[in-house]
Amino acid sequence: MTDIIHKPPNISRHFPLLAELKNYGRNDFSSDLFAGVITAILLVPQGIAYAILAGLPPQLGLYASILPPVAYALLGTSRTLSVGPVSIAAIMVASVLATPEVSVLGNPVQNSLILSAEVGVILLCMAVLRMGGLVNFISHPVLAGFTSGAALLIIASQLPQLAGLKPPDCGLNADCYRTWLDSANTYTLMMGAGCLSLLVFFGKPLTVLLKHARVNLTLLTAISKCGPLLTVVMATVAVAYFNLGQQQVALVGQVPVGLPELAIGFIEAKPAYILLPDSAFIAFIAYVESIAIAKVTANLRGQKIVPNKELIALGVANLVAAVSGGMPVAGGFSRTMVNFSAGARTQMAMIVAAFILLLAVIFFSPWFERIPKAALAAIILMAIYRLVRVRHIINTWRYDRGDGIAELVTLIGVLILGIEEGITLGIILTIGSQLRKNSQPHIAVVGGDAGGQVMQSSKHSVETWHHLLLVRIEESITFANIHSIEEYLETELKKKPNTRHVVLICTSVNDIDATALEALGHFNRSLQQAGKSLNISEAKIKVLDKLQKTDFLKQMQPGQVFARTEDAAKELG
Fold first, then answer.
1. Rounded distance, CA 546 to CA 540, Å?
2. Strands 533-537 and 501-505
3. Both 346 and 462 in a single domain?
4. Alpha-carbon distances of 467 from 459, 568, 569, rounded to whole Å
5. Can you give the pLDDT at residue 170?
6. Over the stretch 191-216, which tens digit does the pLDDT of each residue have?
């Protein structure tokens, strides 16, 4: 008996990073080390800022920036995607925690951990069901409208932080608003304005100055990306030196020192089922946003993203976030682009960034307590304002009115109705717009030129035949558009009462569904009763194979099926 040789499992197939490390060199590590340091500079202030944006203690953002990125680094197929707390997910978590049915449960930290766990489980279930293609069910205009609307909500929530104002509760009372604005804290306002100015300077102005000074590109990237960290450091030093905490300047407050505790106690919570619909929505948006960002950088380097593996990686990352005390995570655009621009070769860059953040949590947590919230609000505003894309709405409107309406309605819906309702409304409008387009396919009467060559529209100086009507249908024939096709054919027949033969040119027809076939059967019988014939030309093999399973082709006789429209014109014309 021959021995059966069992090959060891290819573990690198499940852990893409291991496959990349097989040919990993010193230059690769140098690039990843540099990119990891630069990305870590963003991770610290963003982790704290997005946790506060979500209405959570700051440590939930920091913890979500340590182990979850490492989990994604091992399993993800993007080499540069930076996974961690993100602004869109943060505002969605804040929206969920603020709902009456969730807020009455108390303990927002526990509810956030449940959200992280459920988001992870839902993403893994989607992977098992191979639903990676689900990303294609939300159009780019709807996603852009949702992002712009969510960004405006974030901006509205952070502007009061810059002035030391509590969220307004005045309705439409103008006097109340004046009183509210008068309660602004001067020190906080100065702090916020100073932080914004510094962040603006670290953007384009500093980059232009460094380019004029002919600074090395790598060094230029490093310096320009230090803005958020330097802003936080300077603001914290100012708080300590001038004792601004005594001037009612809002600070982050106590941050636990040391590593997060790994625990699953949140599983015992009773309200888990209440959060399930919201978790599903956060999971969907987190996946769509992460895939979109990952594809941007992958396309720039000619790399490939595997959607189903991304579901697994993001699902595990969110489960790890729940176990390690973190908020829901996704791919972040600003951090990913910084990671990419800094020259990250593999996900080792994110492991380096997570390790640096781990050291920061262990040794510098006491300093985090004195970070003014105005500085974090400034960082969020600078990171988020680019997501408000008014020009994109205008361009979409000009190109396609239906998509433009869907994008605009999504934005307004997010602002007025809420995040979930707004994007749902946008998706419904997109589907409705697509159905409307499909119900009105482009149809053209085909004629011939002076040399007898067919396949040209009758609108372009061609002659049509006296007894022959050639019609090209440039869409699959379905229940959605068969009524429009019938009306078009009947109108053309009224214009040409002497027509004896109708030829449907099916070059662009990929399918004829059952409803459309039944309608074509009725149309064929009405033609036969009038002494006319229905013919088909240039139909695709798969369409003919489908028709041959029915009696339609027999019922169409003496109408014929032609391989070429020219043959139909010669024989019937």
1. 10
2. parallel
3. no
4. 19, 12, 10
5. 61
6. 999 999 999 998 888 888 888 887 77
